[in-house]
Amino acid sequence: MKRAVKLTDVALEVVLPPPEGLHGRVAEAMRYAVFAGGKRLRPFLVLAGAELLGADLDGAARTAAAIECLHTYSLVHDDLPAMDDDDLRRGRPTTHKQFDEATAILAGDALLTVAFEILADPKTHPSAEVRCKLIAGLAKAGGSQGMIGGQMIDMLSAQRSYGQDDIVLLQRMKTGALFEISAEAGPILAEAGADDLERLHSFAVDFGLLFQVTDDLMDVLGDAATAGKAVGKDLEQGKQTLVTTLGLEGAKREARRLAERASQTLSIYGSKADALRALPFELLDRTS
User: Virtual CA dihedral for 180, 183, 186, 192, nearest 10 degrees?
Assistant: First the structure.
């Protein structure tokens, strides 16, 4: 994980614009949001998958940086007053609190668009076909059939009654879609076969849902100082989650089941996949 953070941060430093010129404030806000000390789980999936299948790590680091830019844009916009209205992100003021709402909106927009600029660059991969697959995959994962669609469902959750299948769909779109393209990026960069792509995809489906279940548990059981963000907001806003549906113990059992299945999916790779296979279990006791 530390290596993934280092490789990704080095790539981000290169691809993000410097805070200079009359428009430098937006670049400053972009960097403030991106270098806020996140766990870089999505970049880890990109880099670990690329290494597992023999892809070039420089291109993988650029791909990881692109996905992290898009992910960070979603957090910046999520925190806005019109969305989740949060003052704290990763233990410090959210971007709109540190700067202002207009700057935060523009910074988010800029992070979204620079993600595709990074992927379109031949430095990411010499094959235009590979670059197009990455661009198309990230666009779908971040769009109305992925993350944004999931956010829409989530915003409506306090007004509607959702069953367990609906909540799983919400979480797979809102959170899982970016994990899925992150895991698929390695096989795409390595120009691997369909079987490798499907295994990494299946792993990410379970991992993404596991991440959201543990995030929901943390919202109920955690505290803001440890989590680095506000907690208890789902209950306060009347949002439905797998914790509200399954109960605390049921959600914990589901998290364990998902971790075990995700890990088993990659068992065919043996010790080469140890880091990926261990990651789901690291989420079971997460506090941030």
Answer: -70
